[in-house]
Amino acid sequence: MSDQRRHANEHGKTDKPLPVGQWSHLAATYDNRVMRLYLNGAEVGTLERTGFINPGDNLVVGGHGVGFARARFHGWLDDVRIYRRVLSPADIAALAQTK
């Protein structure tokens, strides 16, 4: 595993940029131990965290949080899904191939 994947920062980011002007498939999983970030079906970042997710009162997709305009994604989001289970790497790779 590369240092980039092994050492994602505290927010689960990666240094791998999104390609400009083309569609990208992003996925993230959390199994109460490790957060994983995938780009076009390939794992590009991990972060070890323990515990349960407390969703709070607001769900924010494509941004840091309510009121943080500077940290919002500038682009288009399509086909956003939230699953009740952790998707396997094979599940994510298959979804990334479905455009």
In short:
The chain has two helices and three strands, in the order H-E-E-E-H. It has 99 residues and is an alpha+beta fold. The model is unreliable at 1-9 (pLDDT under 50).
Total strands: the figure is 3
Main β-sheet description = 3 strands, antiparallel
Strand content bin: 15-25%
What is the first-to-last residue Cα distance? Answer: 28 Å
Write the element-wise H/E pattern from the N-terminal end onward.
HEEEH
Arrangement of strands in the largest sheet: 1-2-3
Give me the secondary-structure category.
Answer: alpha+beta
Helical residue percent?
A: 10-25%
Average pLDDT works out at 79
Total domains:
1
Shape: globular
Number of alpha- plus pi-helical segments: 2
User: Gyration radius, to the nearest Å?
Assistant: 14 Å
Low-confidence stretches: 1-9
